[in-house]
Design brief:
The chain is built from 30 helices and 22 strands. With 929 residues, it is α/β, with parallel strands linked by helices. It holds the Pfam family Ras.
C-alpha cells in the first residue's frame, strides 16, 4: 500500500447522467485528463475514471461513472445508481429536449439510489456555442432551486466551469458525513449490523460496483480466512473474550457461506474453481504510435467518364453498381490491363480489385472481331481460391455482362454436378471462373474443354491459392494453356492480384510472368516494403483475456456491440479456428443470446438459461465442411441482413464482399497474413469498420509483431471494462439455490453467474458435453498445427489445459490420448464431410483399392481412417497438400481417382453417340470431342 493511498480520507462514487450528446464524456475527460476530443464517440453502457482531489487539506478519491444516455440505455439498472454519493446532471444549453428530460433523470436517481438524498449538481454544458443557445442561465437556475440542486454552467471545449463543478460537488458531499462516513453507513440496506466476519474482498455499499477495496478503519485489522477477528488495540483480555466455542464457529461459518452466496460468490461446497483466481498476469502492452501504411481509396472524381471503355460498361457501373467514380486501384489497373501486358496488382482488401480486371476484360472481349459467341469457347479464365469467391466473382461478371448477352460466363466449383458443368462447356462458355482444383479436374476429364482461344488468365488472391497447395494445379493449367497457344501461335495475358505478397508469390511471379510485367502498387509511396496497407476507416483493437474468462468476455462484448447498435446496422463476423468450434459456439450463442433450445433437449437438465437479448439476433454459420449449396445460401442470407452474427472459419477470410459488416471478431488468432485478410471483410470502399482480436497472456507478443513488422496500429481494450456490460443482464443471470434466488450485483458476480449457467448447460446433457469435448480437442489440434515460424507465439505447451477446458464449460480435463497428431500435425486429415458420406452409405458399391494406405496413416497410433469402414475407398482417400494448417478452406478439390468399375460396352457406345449428336446439333460439325 502506497503512502498516498494511506492518506485518502474516503472514496466517493459520483454519477454523470443526462441525455445522449450533451457532452458528459467530454466533461469527464476535461476534468480528469484536461483534454477535449471533437470526435468523441457515444458511451456504451458505462465507463468510469478515478481522480484524487485535495479538499480542505484532505485527499479524496473520486470514482466518476460516465453513463450512456441513448434511448436503449435510458433505464439503467439499479446497480449503476447504488452507492452513489453524488450525481452531476448534464444538459445541453443548445438543446431544449435535453433540458426537458432532466425530470426523468432526477426521478430515476431518487428511485434507485441507495443513499438518502445524494448531492446533485446541475451543469449546463456547451455555453461556448452562444449563437445556438436555447436555455438561458435563469431557466437553469430556477430548475436547480426547485429541486434543491447545485448549479453551474460550463464548457468542456474551453474548460470554463468544469473544475469548479466537480470541486463544489465533492465539497458538499464531504460536508454531509452520513453519505460517506463508514462508521455511519451500513454494508447493505438489508443488513442491520456491520459484521466483522464479512468475507474477503467484500465491498462497502458505496464501492460495491467499482470493486474498489476501501481502507479499513484504523482500529481494525481483518485476518482473512479465519473464524475470529483481532483488533490491533485490544488488550489480551479483550482478545480472549472474542474466542468462541466450536458451535459458535460453525454457526459463523454457515453465516459466512450464506453471505458469500448473497454476493454471488461461490459456495464452499462447490466443485467449481473460481473464475477470477489463479489466472496468469495480463502483461502491460504499450500502444505504440505506428506510421500505418494507408492508401487512398478513391481516385479523381472524373475518372469514370474518362475511362477508355465501352459506354455500355460505364452505364452499367452507374446503374447496377451505383458507382460514380473509380477507386485508385481501378483507375490505375484498367489502362494497364488494356495494354495487353502482364500485370501485377497489389492493393489493400476492399479496394475494388475485382472490377479492376472485370471491366477491361469485358471491354476487350466485346471488341474482338469476329464477334465472340458461345461457340467461340473460353476466352478468359479467372482462378480464385474458394467456392464463395467463385460465386461472388461470377455475380460481378454477370452484372456487367447484362449489356453483352452474347458473351457467356459460368462458375465451375467443387460440389456442383460435374455432368451439368460438362454440358455447359459443350454448349460453349467464354469466361470461366473456377478454383484451380476444379479446373484441373475438367482438364483431365472433360474432352470438350479447349483452350485454343484463351487470351486472359487471372489469378485473384494468388498468395492464398499458393498457400492452400494449388501450386501444382496452377502449373498444370498454365502448361495446358501454353501448349494450346503455342499450337495457334497466340499470346495470352496474365493478371495477378494480391493484398499480401509472400515469398512463394514472388517465386511464382518470377517463373510464370513476363519479366517486363507492369507492377501496380497503390501504397508505393510508403517506404517500408513489409508494411501492409489497411483502410483508414478501420479501427483495430486487441484484448488480452485469460483462458477461463474468454467465453464470458466474448458474450459480454457481443452484448456491448448489440446494445450499442440496437436500432442501427450491426453485422458481426466471428472467426473461429475449426469446424467443430464453429458448431459448438453456434449452438451456445443461440442458447445464451436468443434462448433457443434443441427440440430433443432433456427438460431435467434445463436451467432456463439464456435469452440475454430482449430481441433475438440472427445467427448463421459458415464452415469448410458444408456443401456448396448450404454455403451459398448462408452467404446470400447474411448479405441481406441488417443485424446478425456469422460464425465462420477462414473460409470467409479471403476476397468475400459481405455488405455492411461493422465488426470483425477474431476469437482464435491466426497468422498475421490471415489476420490482415480477416479484418479486410470490414471497412470496405471507405465505410467504417472495427476489428478485435482475443489473445491469451502468453500471446501478447503477437501485438508487437503486428506493430513492428506489419505496421499495424492497435488499441488495447480492457476485459474488465467489457465485463461491466453484463450488469445490464444481472436479473437474467440470477442463480437458484434451494429456496434462495440470488441476483448478482457486480460485474465479477455477473461473469461468475454466467459461467456457472454455462457449465450447468454444457454438463446437463451427455451430447452437449461430448460436443464441448470435441471442440476442446479440436482447439488443441489447431493450436499444435501452427507453422514453425509462429511457434514462439502459439505453442501448445504454453496452454494451461485445465483453464482451456473450463472455457469450454468442461469440469474435467478430456482425455487426449486419442487426439491424433497433437505434437506435429501432418498433411493427412479426415473431414466430417467424409464421415457423413460413410454414414449415409451413398457409395457402398464402390470397390476398395487393393493398394495399402499411405505411410503417414500407418503408425502405431491408429488414425481415424483405420477405424472407419471403406477406409481404402478411393473417393474417401485422404488428401495430401503442402499447405498451412492454420487455414480452413473449401476449394472443392477432390482426390482424382479413376473408377475401377468396367463400363458396359453397349452403354459406353450409346454415351459416345449421344455426345457426338449433341456436338453436331450445337456446333454444326463432326468429330467434336
Amino acid at each position: 500500500m502506497s503512502s498516498d493511498d494511506a492518506q485518502i480520507l474516503t472514496t466517493l462514487k459520483v454519477l454523470i447522467i443526462g441525455e445522449s450528446g450533451v457532452g458528459k464524456s467530454s466533461l469527464l475527460l476535461r476534468f480528469t485528463d484536461n483534454t477535449f476530443d471533437e470526435d468523441m464517440a457515444a458511451t456504451i453502457g458505462v465507463d468510469f475514471k478515478v481522480k484524487q482531489l485535495e479538499i480542505n487539506d484532505n485527499r479524496v478519491k473520486l470514482a466518476i461513472w460516465d453513463t450512456a444516455g441513448q434511448e436503449r440505455f435510458r433505464t439503467l439498472t439499479p446497480g449503476y445508481y447504488r452507492g452513489a454519493q453524488g450525481a452531476i446532471l448534464v444538459y445541453d444549453v443548445c438543446n431544449r429536449q435535453s433540458f426537458r428530460q432532466l425530470d426523468r433523470w432526477i426521478s430515476e436517481l431518487d428511485t434507485f439510489s441507495t443513499k438518502t438524498d445524494p448531492i446533485k449538481m446541475l451543469v449546463g454544458n456547451k455555453i461556448d456555442q452562444k449563437d445556438s443557445r436555447e436555455i438561458t442561465y435563469d431557466e437553469g437556475d430556477r430548475f436547480a432551486r426547485k429541486h434543491s440542486m447545485l448549479f453551474i454552467e460550463a464548457s468542456a471545449r474551453t474548460c470554463e466551469g468544469v473544475q469548479v463543478a466537480f470541486k463544489e460537488l465533492v465539497e458538499k458531499i464531504i460536508e454531509t458525513p452520513s453519505l460517506w462516513d463508514k462508521t455511519e453507513a451500513s454494508i447493505r440496506p438489508s443488513d442491520n449490523d456491520h459484521s466483522d466476519d464479512a468475507p474477503a474482498g467484500y465491498m462497502e455499499d458505496n464501492n460495491l460496483l467499482l470493486n474498489i477495496t476501501s481502507e479499513p478503519t484504523p482500529t481494525r485489522s481483518k485476518v482473512l480466512g479465519k473464524n475470529s477477528v483481532k483488533r490491533k488495540h485490544d488488550t489480551e483480555d479483550e482478545q480472549d473474550s472474542n474466542v468462541v466455542d466450536s458451535n459458535t464457529k460453525k454457526k459463523k461459518q454457515n453465516e459466512r457461506v450464506k453471505l458469500d452466496l448473497c454476493q454471488g460468490r461461490e459456495m464452499k461446497t462447490s466443485n467449481r474453481s473460481s473464475l477470477f483466481s489463479n489466472n496468469p498476469t495480463i502483461p502491460e502492452i504499450d500502444e505504440k504510435h505506428v506510421e500505418t501504411a494507408n492508401e487512398e481509396i478513391f481516385g479523381s472524381a472524373s475518372s469514370l467518364d474518362k475511362m477508355p471503355v465501352h459506354p455500355h460498361i460505364i452505364g452499367c457501373l452507374k446503374q447496377k453498381f451505383n458507382i460514380n467514380r473509380l477507386t485508385n486501384v481501378q483507375e490505375k489497373s484498367i489502362p494497364a490491363i488494356l495494354t495487353g501486358e502482364d500485370v501485377i496488382i497489389k492493393s489493400q482488401t476492399g479496394s475494388g480489385k475485382t472490377l479492376a480486371y472485370v471491366i477491361p476484360i469485358i471491354h476487350r472481349i466485346q471488341s474482338i472481331e469476329p464477334l465472340v459467341r458461345r461457340e467461340t469457347g473460353p476466352i478468359a479464365i479467372v482462378l480464385v481460391p474458394t467456392k464463395e469467391l467463385v460465386q461472388q466473382t461470377y455475380e460481378v461478371f454477370q452484372k456487367v455482362l447484362t449489356s453483352f448477352v452474347r458473351i457467356v460466363c459460368s462458375p465451375l466449383v467443387g460440389g456442383s454436378n460435374r455432368n451439368h458443368e460438362k454440358k455447359r462447356l459443350r454448349r460453349g462458355l467464354n469466361i470461366l471462373i473456377s478454383t484451380p482444383g476444379r479446373l484441373t479436374d475438367h482438364i483431365e476429364n472433360t474432352q470438350s474443354l479447349s483452350f485454343k482461344n484463351i487470351q486472359f488468365l487471372i489469378f485473384d488472391e494468388a498468395d492464398k491459392m499458393l498457400d492452400m497447395g494449388f501450386a501444382d494445379a496452377i502449373k498444370k493449367i498454365i502448361e495446358t494453356i501454353t501448349k494450346h497457344n503455342d499450337d495457334t501461335d497466340k499470346h495470352f495475358q496474365r493478371v495477378l492480384l494480391s493484398a499480401t505478397p509472400t515469398s512463394a508469390l514472388t517465386n511464382f511471379v518470377d517463373i510464370n510472368l513476363n519479366k517486363n510485367s507492369l507492377h501496380i502498387d497503390i501504397s508505393e509511396e510508403f517506404n517500408d516494403e513489409s508494411a501492409i496497407t489497411v483502410p483508414k476507416t478501420l479501427t483495430q483493437m486487441f484484448m488480452i483475456v485469460p483462458s477461463k474468462l474468454r467465453f464470458v468476455t466474448l458474450i459480454a462484448f457481443l452484448l456491448k456491440i448489440l446494445q450499442a447498435n440496437k436500432n442501427n446496422e450491426a453485422k458481426i463476423l466471428l472467426f473461429l479456428a475449426t469446424n467443430e468450434l464453429v458448431r459448438f459456439h453456434y449452438d451456445l450463442l443461440n442458447t445464451i443470446l436468443n434462448g433457443e433450445k434443441d427440440d430433443d433437449e432433456d427438460e431435467q437438465g434445463d436451467l432456463q438459461f439464456g435469452h440475454l437479448l430482449d430481441q433475438p439476433i440472427k445467427l448463421l454459420k459458415l464452415q469448410g465442411d458444408m456443401t456448396h449449396h448450404e454455403r451459398t445460401s448462408v452467404f446470400n442470407e447474411f448479405g441481406k441482413l441488417t443485424q446478425g452474427i456469422l460464425l465462420c472459419t477462414n473460409v470467409a477470410a479471403r476476397g468475400l464482399d459481405l455488405p455492411s459488416v461493422t465488426w470483425i471478431l477474431q476469437y482464435h488468432p491466426t497468422s498475421p497474413i490471415d489476420y490482415i485478410h480477416r479484418i479486410g471483410r470490414t471497412a470496405r470502399l471507405g465505410s467504417i469498420g472495427c476489428s478485435l482480436i482475443f489473445l491469451l497472456p502468453n500471446e501478447a507478443e503477437y501485438v508487437a509483431t503486428l506493430q513492428d513488422k506489419y505496421k499495424m496500429s492497435l488499441k488495447n481494450i480492457s476485459p474488465d471494462d467489457v465485463l461491466e456490460t453484463l450488469m445490464f443482464s444481472c436479473n437474467k443471470l440470477k442463480q437458484h439455490f434451494e429456496t434462495r434466488t440470488v441476483v448478482p450485483r457486480t460485474a465479477e458476480q455477473c461473469a461468475s453467474s454466467l459461467h456457472h449457467h454455462f457449465e450447468e448447460y454444457v454438463n446437463g446433457s451427455g451430447e452437449r458435453t461430448e460436443e464441448a469435448r470435441q471442440a476442446y480437442l479440436s482447439f488443441i489440434r489447431y493450436y499444435a498445427s501452427f507453422a514453425r515460424e509462429w511457434k514462439y507465439l502459439f505453442h501448445v505447451k504454453n496452454l494451461h489445459r485445465g483453464h482451456v477446458a473450463k472455457s469450454f464449460g468442461l469440469r474435467e480435463l478430456p482425455d487426449e490420448s486419442n487426439n491424433h497428431n497433437i505434437k506435429e500435425r501432418t498433411g493427412t486429415f479426415a473431414s466430417s464431410k467424409i464421415k457423413r458420406k460413410i454414414k449415409s452409405k451413398e457409395d457402398e458399391t464402390i470397390d476398395p483399392l487393393d493398394e495399402p494406405l499411405p505411410e503417414p496413416i500407418k503408425s502405431e497410433t491408429k488414425s481415424i481412417f483405420d477405424r472407419l469402414p471403406l477406409s481404402n475407398n478411393p473417393k474417401f482417400r485422404p488428401r495430401y497438400r503442402n499447405f498451412s494448417h492454420i487455414s480452413e478452406f473449401g476449394s472443392g478439390l477432390e482426390v482424382s481417382t479413376k473408377s475401377h468399375k468396367k463400363k458396359d460396352k453397349v452403354g459406353e457406345f450409346l454415351e459416345k453417340k449421344r455426345e457426338r449428336n449433341t456436338s453436331k446439333r450445337l456446333f454444326g460439325r463432326k468429330n467434336v470431342k
